[in-house]
Every structure is written in structure tokens, then in C-alpha cells.
Amino acid sequence: MGRVLVALGGNALQRAGxxxxxxxxxxxxxxxxxxxxxxxxxxxxLIVTHGNGPQVGTLLRQNELAEHELxxxxxxxxxxxxxxxxxxxxxxxxxxxxxxxKVPRTVLALVSRTVVSRRDRAFQHPDKPVGRYYSEAEAxxxxxxxxxxxxxxxxxxxxxxxxxxxEPVRWIEGEVLRKLLPRGWxxxxxxxxxxxxxxxxxxxxxxxxxxxxAVIDKDRTASLVAISMDADTLAILTDVPxxxxxxxxxxxxxxxxxxxxxxxxxxxRGEFGEGSMAPKVQASLTFLxxxxxxxxxxxxxxxxRAMRNETGTRIxxx
Amino acid sequence: MGRVLVALGGNALQRAGxxxxxxxxxxxxxxxxxxxxxxxxxxxxLIVTHGNGPQVGTLLRQNELAEHELxxxxxxxxxxxxxxxxxxxxxxxxxxxxxxxKVPRTVLALVSRTVVSRRDRAFQHPDKPVGRYYSEAEAxxxxxxxxxxxxxxxxxxxxxxxxxxxEPVRWIEGEVLRKLLPRGWxxxxxxxxxxxxxxxxxxxxxxxxxxxxAVIDKDRTASLVAISMDADTLAILTDVPxxxxxxxxxxxxxxxxxxxxxxxxxxxRGEFGEGSMAPKVQASLTFLxxxxxxxxxxxxxxxxRAMRNETGTRIxxx
Lengths: 318, 318
Hints:
2 copies of one chain form a homodimer. The first copy, chain A, has helices spanning 22-41, 53-65, 75-100, 136-145, 174-180, 218-228, 260-268, 277-289, 303-307, and strands at 3-8, 45-50, 106-109, 113-115, 128-134, 149-153, 158-163, 170-171, 189-192, 199-205, 208-211, 233-237, 244-245, 253-254, 257-259, 294-298, 313-316. Chain A has 318 residues and is an alpha/beta fold. In chain A, strands 2-1-12-16-17-15 form a 6-stranded mixed β-sheet, sandwiched between helices. A 4-stranded mixed β-sheet of chain A has the order 8-4-10-11. A 3-stranded antiparallel β-sheet of chain A has the order 5-7-6. In chain A, a hairpin with a 2-residue loop joins β10 (199-205) and β11 (208-211). Chain A starts with a strand and ends with a strand.
């Protein structure tokens, strides 16, 4: 038994191919919450973090559609709003699942900020697409008037806004949480933190922060959180049961238990997709390098068994 | 010195007559944050709560304007989103103000749920107007298709949706917070809790909650929070420097220090406006009845002096 940080992403929050309604999100979270409750019933201390891609996309689009009547809010603010939205959803569904599993806890979602460096090269090279696709005619004034960086996506035949995706440096609320929470807190609460990677802020002068329009990879922040909260296991949930090398090739091989050094060499030779599996592997390796014992990459249905080292990709320290 | 819960409402968050832009909200919060930091510099342990009327109205309207493309989310979810939005704003501005006042703290905003009773009579008599005004032609299908209760406002010549405003019964996250926080936490953190009165939920079975489309008076929840967090002072900030009797009449009298029993008799004889001052007075009296020492009703610029009993309305136990 130990302490586990679970990072929820993709289909743990929103089923692919749905209509994006609230009842759909609730149903999907209910499934994920049942899985998380099993870990607690098995004696783990649990911390949860989550992505916000589809949710922040919806808020961006709603702001846009209402722009003629209501001034839109910046992206950092919309990110904070998704922390409220998803934090509430996790509080509701996980609280219920924990009661059903007979291990009641108070699920406590925090509005979390993550410091990024203003000197991060990502600010010179925004490359993370957000929001919807635009025609050439729509894109031109957005680039000019709003100063958006945009990229053309040939496959979809449209332009998309790109924002910087800087490295997370520090989770602001983490230090005090670690200091104030008494030993054994896991028997009372399940913290939900750094949703969407945390609201990105830069430190202007000591203790004074300014929000920036950027996107932080939630798995990279998850590794920071796992380290600062002394987690034994970092579990990254995605839509495949494990990581693979030679993905989609005849020699494809799904990875079970792998040493960090071996995983690092797969990563270096480009085995993992840049926008999908590579950041999860990188986050896992960061966690292990800082003293973490085990990183798991799997999907929600496989999580319990992966925790027992029966399935999923388990990366372990050398 | 002691512990003070400050409830921010109205113009503490959004300047009347503005355009509702984000920079306006930031500027307004910066002024309020400077006032709150003064209390901490004076040695008070601080807890903050806030309203969300204008902000949830904006989200309701954005959901409506985008409805042809994106399914709208229920009101409880929008309330949670405003907790993220405003919680982030308070974290940012209050953290900076505390640094400037040389009393650095971590400002920690929580996604908070408030239990209401499904037997609360408010559910039979929804009377709290939310969102915008509709013409008769717009209102008819909303009443029929969405099942909205609506009321006609003669003065503005339009229909508005009304939702129930039940009594807050319990702030879910409060119990564990009170249990886990060590003595002297006020030297480290400033919790921001129960924004918009908390997301309203009903308890279906023990520990299993369901969100409801309702509005909880944030000042009434504030008195619950002040009690559960053992605050000495409940300070309710509004847009007037004090409560008055005979408001707008020739015999108008602004109230300074008043005993609870005296305030109660003013309340009974209808001295305070139903939608504005009366709930603040009621919340104050609830707090005092449960052992609170002092409730203050004032505006942000007067708060520091009111804490020294020099201005504002101070209601004290008999």
C-alpha cells in the first residue's frame, strides 16, 4: 500500500464520439470514479489530477459565439473555470463511489496555479492548437486584431490558434498543502489538484503572479505533484491499456514492466507519439528520476490490475 | 486579534456600470484585496467567501447564445465554474496584496458544495430571478420546453427565469477542513470557500449528493462557514458603508454598534430590503446566535475601520 497520484485524461472524462452533454460527462466520470474508489478500498492514499482539453475548447467556443454581446475572458481564466467544473464533477462522483466502496472520504478540489518561466522557449514558438478550426477569411482578422498565432492544418483544411506549451516549474498551492496536511490525511480526504496542468502563471516579482494564455501538459504537472506530495506511484490514465513500441507496425510490442533506462532509450529513438504518448513517458521518467518508485500508463478499466502489476505499462526505477 | 470571515459581494467583485470585462474585474478585486491584506497585517486570521451573481449570469447567457452549437450545462455546474473563475482571481490578487503588505500567505480556493434540503419550501416556490429578460414570445417556449418557472417584471417589461433559493444546511468540505487544519493555519493560508453560497446539492443517500438548479444566498452560507470555522467576526461587504433604518426616509438613521436583539426587532418590523439588506442581517444574527462575537456590515473602503469599531454596522451579541 502507498500513495498514488492518478492523472485522468481523455476518455476518463469525456467519451469519444459523444455530444459533449453534461449527463454524458457524468456517466463517464461515474465509471472512472468506481475504478478510483477500488484503489482507496485497497488501502491506497489517493490524489487526483485531470486534463481539460475538450472542456476548455467548449468554453473558448462559447466565449466566441457570445462575443457580440459579452466580452470574452482570457484563456487562463477559462482554465480556472474548467477546474471548477471538473473539480465539482469529480467531487460528486468520487464521493459517491467511495461511499459505495465503503471507504468514505471528502473529495477536495483546489483551484491550482502552476508557475511557468517567462523565458521558456515555448513562448517564442507557440505550437499547441486550441479551440476550433477557422477558414482563411475568418483567420486573417484573428491573427491581425487579436494577435493570435495560427497554423494551417492541411488534413482538416483549416486554421487553428496555437498557444505556447511551457514546462511546469512549480505548483504554487502544493508547498503549503504538503506542510499543513497531517500524516494520514489520505484516510480523510482525496485532493483534486492542478486540473488542466494548473492555471499557467509567471512570477513577476516574488509572490506576485500574472496569468498567461498558454497550455501546460497535465501529465508533466502530474509528475511535479506526485513528487511534491511524496506519491509512490504516478498512474497516467489514457485511452489505451498500455504503451507500445513499434505502434501499428508488424513488430508492435505492448510494454509491461520496463526499467526507466530502457524506456528512456525507446523515447529517444522516437517510439512514442509526440502529442500523445511521449509526454506521458517523459512525465513518468521525471517522476522516477526524482525518487518515485513506479509510473503506470494504462486505461481506466485496467488500472486496478495494473496497480497489482498484472497489466498496463509499469515503468520502474533502475 | 482573532479570526474573521469576509463575504465579498456586489461591488467588491465587479464595479457597477462597467462593461464586465476581465481587466475591470481584476482592477476591482485589486482594490478589495488591498483591504483584506490590511486585516491580515493587523494580525487577523482570514477566510474569504464571495458572491457570483453577475458571473453566473454571464455564463448562463453564453450557454444560451451558443446553444445551437454546444449543449448548455446546468446551473449547478455553472456555479462551480464561477468558483474556479473567482477563486483564481482572488488567489492572484490577494496573494499579491499580501506580499505587498509583507504578510505572505498561500491563498487556497476550494470547490465547495452546500447541502440543501429537498423538502425546503423554496423548491415549491422558486422566487430568485436569474439570467436575462425575455419577451413574451421568447418566454413561452422556455416555460413549456425547458420547464422553467418565470415571472413578469413590469418595471423592465420582460420575463425572467426564477429558481429556488433554499436555506443552506451544511458546507460539505467544511467538516474535514476543520478537522485537518492544524492550529495556527492562518499564518500560512487564506482559504477561499463556498463561492456563490456553494454549489447547491441535495443528499440522496448518506454521502451521495445530486446537484440542483438553485441559488443559495451567499451571506447565509457565510454565517454557516463562520460558525464551522470558529470565526470571531463575520464581515459582510456590500455597496453601502452601513445598514440603515428608515432608509431613504427623513428619519433615516445609519446603524453603528447594535445589539443582536435590537437588530432582530428592526428586522421584524421590515426595516431592511428583502433582496438586499435583510439576508445580510439574518445571516449576521444566525452567526451571533451560534456563538459568534461580532458581525459587521460595511463596504470595502470602510472595512479596516469597522474592524476597529470606528465605522460600519457592528452587530454584537446581547
